[in-house]
What we know:
Layout: H1 6-15, E1 35-38, E2 53-56, H2 58-64, E3 69-71, E4 78-80, H3 89-92, E5 93-96, E6 99-102, H4 105-113, H5 119-130
Antiparallel strand pairs: 1-2, 3-4, 5-6
Amino acid sequence: MSDIPRPLAEAVALRAAGRCEYCRLSQLGQEATFHIDHVTPRAAGGPTEADNLALACVSCSLRKWAKQTAPDPDSLAEVPLFNPRTQAWADHFRWDGPRAVGLTPTGRATAFALAMNRPAIVAIRTEEAFRGRHPG
Length: 136
């Protein structure tokens, strides 16, 4: 059970327009309820307040876990993960059909660490595009 107050969780989901703020998947049509993610993890002192919370699909939430950094697959340098509270998605990613392409070290590291292009999610995005729910 979440320790995030319901009104705060609802405000986070509304702000995100029902989409994972990492991979942009829509909650519509998904069986599992999306998580409210601490961008800066509680283990690292991240507060439970709106400016540190993001809506995340189950896959992104579980893969991100308490990570704050990951290696950029191109340079192997350890870089910060994408922060949906302080960074714009389009500055770090672009769509290539149903695939999220990292444009920056942060975008590439986040896409890799969260497995944003694993076969299952690409198939889901392809179906979402058919239904008019894919943001790309």
